[in-house]
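Deliverable D2.4 — example input (structure tokens):
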């Protein structure tokens, strides 16, 4: 029986190089543990999330917890705080809306599944629910967004 070796074409080598670069660049390996997914997701969120042009924002925290909650706390110069909490098991969609300088990741849920609270607001404290949450981001190339989306989907399935 005769076997032949087909040399890789330039296109195949290019695609293979892109995949290898993406895997090295974003720290993926064939089988990641849940803790590795969690660590990578938190690192990605913390390096990509940005307050944008909101100069009144004093500090912010964004965390994906080991019980599949995405939690965001924003603290403003005058003391007002905003808190958002979303269980990833309730996600129905994740979109990326790019722009020239910043982009937005939009998280959508089935119903009013996102907790929105404000504290120390001069207009009064607020407890409400929402069906979508916009995360302003920078430095989010398509491959990185796809990886984050995969991580969110992984946790969404774990949280069902």
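Example output (designed residues):
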């Amino acid at each position: 029986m005769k076997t032949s070796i087909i040399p890789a074409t330039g296109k195949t080598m290019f695609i293979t190089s892109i995949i290898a670069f993406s895997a090295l660049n974003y720290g993926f390996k064939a089988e990641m543990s849940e803790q590795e997914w969690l660590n990578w997701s938190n690192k990605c969120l913390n390096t990509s999330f940005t307050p944008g042009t909101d100069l009144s924002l004093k500090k912010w925290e964004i965390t994906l917890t080991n019980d599949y909650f995405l939690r965001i706390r924003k603290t403003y110069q005058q003391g007002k705080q905003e808190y958002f909490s979303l269980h990833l098991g309730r996600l129905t969609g994740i979109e990326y809306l790019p722009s020239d300088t910043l982009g937005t990741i939009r998280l959508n849920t089935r119903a009013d599944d996102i907790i929105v609270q404000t504290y120390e607001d001069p207009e009064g404290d607020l407890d409400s629910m929402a069906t979508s949450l916009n995360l302003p981001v920078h430095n989010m190339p398509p491959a990185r967004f796809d990886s984050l989306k995969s991580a969110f989907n992984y946790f969404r399935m774990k949280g069902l």
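Confidence is low (pLDDT under 50) at residues 1-27.
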